Amino acid sequence: MHIHPLEQWTHTHKFNIDHTHGERKTKQVILLTAITMVVEIVAGSIYGSMALLADGWHMGTHVAALSITVFAYSYARRHANDTRYSFGTGKVGVLGGFASGVVLVVVALLMGIESLHRLVSPQPIQFNEAIVVAVLGFGVNLLSMFLLQGQHHHGHAHEHHHHKDHNLRAAYLHVLTDALTSVLAIIALLAGKAFGWVWLDPIMGIVGAVLITRWSYGLLRDTSGILLDSQVDSATLSKVRSAIEADADNQVADLHIWRIAPQHSAAIISIVTHHLQSPEHYKKLLADFGELTHVTIEACPCTDKHCIIDSQANLARWTN
Questions:
Q1: Residues paired with 299 in a beta bridge
Q2: Where in the chain is the domain with CATH 3.30.300.90?
Q3: What span, in angstroms and rounded, lies between the C-alpha atoms of 267 and 231?
Q4: Please, where in the chain does CATH 1.20.1510.10 lie?
Q5: What is the mean pLDDT of each run of 10 residues along the chain (320 residues)?
Q6: Domain 7-227 has CATH 1.20.1510.10
Q7: DSSP 222-251
Q8: Exposed, middle or buried: residue 65 (CB in 10 Å: 0-12, 13-18, 19+)?
Q9: Has domain 234-319 been given CATH number 3.30.300.90?
């Protein structure tokens, strides 16, 4: 029985990042979006603009989606040290991003269906009033993008090192799609007023739905891969394998690396060798891989007689 403490062999599982500032900014965006949502839905109903209604309902779903973002940040922070989560709460933000992506797909589907209906059955539009409200909505979108811009660019800078805050990405994507639908509504309303092209209003709704679906697909693809513990990119796997096998006669028999948080990865590595070392020795070989914050090593001695002879010969050559 061990009588000494085990601190030197234990480690934290707190892999989430403090996003208090981003959470506060997102709450401000939610308030702005909710106010604009009410104004646009009421105005779109009164003035008969499908583009304006689509923009308003789109903002409504974003209020819910942005609320998911805030909840994910809050939940991850409050449960960061909860032992029920084997690898911490680093994936809560990824789950929030995935949920937001699903919301975006639903919004795009509803926009497309309603726009097709308006294309088949055109309705009169009061252009002047609708244009004023659409411009107001676009202004709110720009302000919301400004509030989130610093946070998003910080996360985007990390993307070059494969560090992605998918929760923040989802929030920014929702605001960006709001701005897009506002612009499309303005274009459709101006063209409709100038040339009588009432059909352009639902066409712009369809264009917006297609673009939103495309952006949503990218978000869902990236987040689902992390949630399903898919392997990291092949280049990283190859580099880790090379770092282990460059030492002595090590051979990597099994290698698994997956994301447990935006900036953290876990690894399980099985090594076969004639020159058995401590797990710490092999972990030091991976010191340059900063993202590998939870590494489990299985070192298996190779006892085959012919291999031992060859290994001793190779070792003699290395030492001479």
A1: 271
A2: 234-319
A3: 10
A4: 7-227
A5: 61 59 81 83 77 70 80 82 78 86 86 87 78 81 79 46 65 80 85 86 86 86 85 88 90 90 86 89 91 89 68 53
A6: yes
A7: HHHHHHTT-B--HHHHHHHHHHHHTSTT-E
A8: buried
A9: yes
Would you state the structure tokens that stand for residue 51, as one six-digit string? 């583009």
